[in-house]
Design goal:
Elements lengths: L1 E2 H4 L3 E4 L5 E10 L5 E6 L8 E6 L3 E4 L4 E3 L5 E5 L5 E2 L5 E2 L4 E4 L4 E10 L9 E5 L2 H7 L2 E4 L8 E2 L4 E3 L8 E2 H7 L1
Parallel strand pairs: 2-7, 9-10, 11-16
Antiparallel strand pairs: 1-12, 2-3, 3-4, 3-9, 4-5, 5-8, 6-7, 11-12, 12-13, 13-14, 14-17, 15-16
């Protein structure tokens, strides 16, 4: 499983030439919060177009680099088309509060996890209650419900089933199970 925060900043390299086409700045999601592609770092102050690599063109997500099929996999698109992302779009996942349907706040979204080759659905969430709480108690892991429609990834909050509160685990436990 891959932590999204881990791949931000990694170089994107063409497998057959070894050419680096850029570094990952963010991840781009569609309206159903399925991973659509990776957004590369841009140069300049006012960027109207961004360079993205569609997820279908990613061959490998390694520890130190992302490998893509060819240089043509890095394409420019209008920046306004990126509405949902992890940290830079109009709708951002990072730092959204995670609430149960009963109104209990479980924490704020710190990271998301997904399988690199088993579809692009988010499989889990890392939650934080803030720096001090992270030091004292650690972050929490919440496995995404099997039924994707059970989670509402909204504009201002993520709404999860009531049972999610009982299913929270320490982050370390989530990494040892996969």
């Amino acid at each position: 499983m891959i932590r999204l925060q881990h791949i931000i900043g990694l170089p994107v390299v063409v497998i057959h030439s070894g050419k680096c086409v850029g570094k990952i700045k963010d991840a781009w999601f569609d309206e159903h919060w399925q991973l659509r592609g990776l957004i590369l770092e841009a140069r300049g102050w006012f960027v109207r177009k961004v360079t993205v690599v569609h997820w279908k063109d990613v061959l490998t997500c390694g520890e130190d680099a992302i490998l893509i099929s060819g240089e043509d996999a890095a394409v420019k698109i209008e920046a306004h088309r990126i509405t949902r992302s992890f940290v830079t779009g109009l709708l951002k996942l990072k730092d959204l509060p995670v609430l149960t349907v009963q109104g209990s706040q479980l924490g704020f979204l710190s990271d998301v996890y997904f399988h690199p080759y088993q579809g692009t659905q988010i499989i889990g969430y890392e939650l934080t209650d803030g720096f001090v709480s992270d030091l004292m108690e650690g972050r929490k892991w919440l496995r995404a419900p099997a039924e994707a429609s059970a989670v509402l990834l909204g504009e201002d909050a993520i709404i999860v089933p009531a049972v999610s509160e009982a299913e929270l685990e320490p982050v370390a436990a989530s990494n040892s199970n996969e």
